[in-house]
Structure formats: C-alpha cells, structure tokens
Amino acid sequence: MEFVFSNHALLQMKLRQISKSMVERILENPEQIIKENGHKVYQSVVLINKKKYLIRIFVSYKKSPNIIITVYRTSKIKKYHES
Q1: Is 8 exposed, middle or buried (0-12, 13-18, 19+ CB in 10 A)?
Q2: In principle, which of 12, 38, 58, 62 could form an S-S bond with 69, CB 3.0–4.6 Å?
Q3: pLDDT score recorded for residue 64
Q4: Is 6 exposed, middle or buried (0-12, 13-18, 19+ CB in 10 A)?
Q5: Bridge partners of residue 48, in order along the sequence
Q6: What span, in angstroms and rounded, lies between the C-alpha atoms of 14 and 28?
Q7: Which of 2, 42, 37 has its CA nearest to residue 22?
Q8: pLDDT over threshold 90, residue 1
C-alpha cells in the first residue's frame, strides 16, 4: 500500500522526534488498525529511551494514495490500544 506524508504529519514527526523510518515500519506491520473519526489509525507499542509508548498514525484512506494526516506518541497505551 502506498502512503504520502502530509506537511502537517512531517512537522508533527519532527516536533515529537518520531522518525520517518519508524512510521514506515509501523505502517508495514502495525499491531492494530482501527477506524476512528473516518480515518484509519495504524498503531504499535514501541520502546523509546527505555519507556513504552504507543505510536498512532492517522491515515485518510478515501483517496489514493493514502495520506498520513498526523502522527503522535502517547504513554496512555491502555486508553487507545484495543486488547
């Protein structure tokens, strides 16, 4: 599947220190894909500086190629990670 990074997503990745390679790895092999607010959210738990975070990647899938809208990490794994 092909993905295109929006300028907003690239800016958020830079501000939040999330590498493009990490995002690409999660998109290729996500732990979960959930639908939220009309978008697909690709997400995986990762270890950053010895702490677990959930990386969430919001993707608009209604156009081709799919557009990565935003990316962020959160320590509130239980809140967003579906068991």
Answers
A1: middle
A2: 58
A3: 87
A4: middle
A5: 51
A6: 20
A7: 42
A8: no
Quick check: 24 and 30 in contact, CB under 8 A?
Answer: no
* Mean pLDDT of all residues in 56-62: 95
Q: How far apart are CA 78 and CA 23, in angstroms?
A: 20
Asked whether 70 and 12 are in contact (CB, 8 A), the reply is: yes
pLDDT tens digits along 23-57: 999 999 999 999 998 899 999 999 999 999 999 99
Amino acid at 35: K
The tokens describing 3, both together, are 């993905």
| Strand spans (E) along the chain | 3-5, 32-36, 39-48, 51-60, 66-74
Between the CA of residue 28 and those of 2, 22, 78, what are the distances in Å?
10, 10, 23
pTM: 0.94
